[in-house]
Amino acid sequence: MQNLISLPLQAKVEEAFQKALPTILDLESPRAISFCIKGLYFHYQFKRKCETLALITQLWITLSKYRGVSSEKWQWYEPYLSYANAVLPEAMLLAGICTKSDLFKNTTLNNF
Questions:
Q1: Of the candidates 93, 74, 76, which has an alpha carbon nearest to the alpha carbon of residue 30?
Q2: Which residue, 38, 33, 98, 20, is CA-closest to 61?
Q3: Whole-prediction pTM value?
Q4: For the segment 71-88, what is each residue's pLDDT rounded down to a tens digit?
């Protein structure tokens, strides 16, 4: 399969990606965290770095803390529904798949 992005462009994208990584752990929005997990998941498919798995794990733990607003009647990350709701459990499942963590996958599946 022909590479659709030139190597110099790939290098620039990777450089920008690496520069953004330190700021990811400062995120507080569940959706922003979820989109980061998804991006890291796909990045990991091409560059298998243990640092990426560690970051995904940290973000999953942060995202799972948002489940604290859940109750028996309201099983969600926040006290309201908003845009892009599906990205939250999707990111948690991708984190479980990427890290091969049954705990991550089961926690996500058992909460929905």
A1: 76
A2: 33
A3: 0.82
A4: 788 777 778 788 888 898
- Determine contact, residues 36/25, Cβ cutoff 8 Å: no
Residue 62 burial by CB count (10 A; 0-12/13-18/19+): exposed, middle or buried? Answer: middle
What pLDDT, in 10s, does the model give residues 8-28? Answer: 888 898 899 999 999 999 998
Which conformational region is residue 65 in: left (phi greater than 0), alpha (psi within -120 to 50 degrees), or beta?
A: alpha
Answer with the residue of higher pLDDT: 78 or 55. 55
The helix (H) or strand (E) run that includes residue 23 is helix 7-24
Query: What are the C-alpha distances in Å from 103 to residues 1, 48, 60, 74, 94?
Result: 36, 21, 11, 22, 12
- Can you tell me the distance from the alpha carbon of 14 to that of 19, in angstroms, rounded to the nearest whole number? 9
45-48: list long-range contacts, CB under 8 Å, 24+ apart.
none
